[in-house]
Amino acid sequence: MERIVLQVGGRSVAVEGDCALRFLRTYDGAQPFVVAEAEPDWYVRYGSDVALPTQGEVLNSFVFREIDARCCFRRSGDMFYYDMRRSDGSMLVAMSHRFGSNRVDATLCDDASALRFSLWFALSMLGAPSSFTFVHSSVIVCQGRAVLFLGESGTGKSTHTRLWLKNIPDAHLLNDDSPILTIEDGRPCVYGSPWSGKTPCYEARRFPLAAVVRLSQSPQNAMRRLSIPAAFAALQPSLPPALMQDERYADLLIGIISDTISAVPSYHLACLPDDEAARLSCKTIFDNAL
Q: Where do the domains of the chain lie, and which CATH numbers do they carry?
C-alpha cells in the first residue's frame, strides 16, 4: 500500500490511504517532516472499516470550532474510538486504536481540517506510551534550548513569543501551537511539529527544554518560580484533555509531566504585552540557569 512516512517527535509514522496522501502532499506543514521510506514505528491507516461501539463509555465530547464539528472520544475495553461529525450528524471521520498498539485505523475523510486534526489525535494516542505528547503552547528557542509558554487561548502566548523575537537577539520560534514534548534518557526535549495553529512555523528540529512558563495578563510585569505542585497544575491543562479522561492515558501523561517539572524549572509570568516582559522572562530563565 502506498504511504507517506513522517518523522515526528523522534518517531516515524506511516500514513496510508488515498485521502490522507492527497492531503499531506498539499499541506505545507507536513513537508519538512516527510522522510524517505523507512521502517515505521507507528501506522495510521485511512480507508479502514471502523465500527463504533454501541455500549462504549464516552470519555470526552467537544466541538472542533474550525469547522463546527462535534468530536467524541470513547473506550470499550482496550479499544479507543474517536469520531468527528458535521453539525447535521453526518460522519467526517472515525478512528479506532487498541491501547498500546502501534496502529490507528481510520475511515476515509474528504475534509482537510478533519484530516489534519484526526492525524494529530491519532499521534496523541500512539505517542503517550512512548513519553511523547503534544503541548498547547508557543515555544521559543534561545541559547540552544526551548522554552514552553503556556496559557489559555487568548492569554497572549503568541504575543509574548513575538516580543522575544523582537527583543532577544538569538531567539527563534519553533512552534506556535502544538509542539511535541518527549522524555529522552530522563530529560525533557521539545520538537517542532506539523501543527502550528495560525502561525506557519513547521520546523523538524529538536531542542532540550530549559523551562516551562505559564502566562497571565497583568497591569505589571512579575515573574516567580513555581513549586512542584504549582508547576504540575500549570502544565497539566496544556496536554491533550481528552486523553486525561482515561486513567491509563492519564497515568502516562502524568509521568511525562512529573519527569518534566522535576528536570527543569517552571515559572508563572504575570505580564503586560510589552518589550520589558520579554526581557524579564529571558533574564529570569537564562540567568538562573547559569
A: 3-130 (no CATH), 134-288 (3.90.228.20)
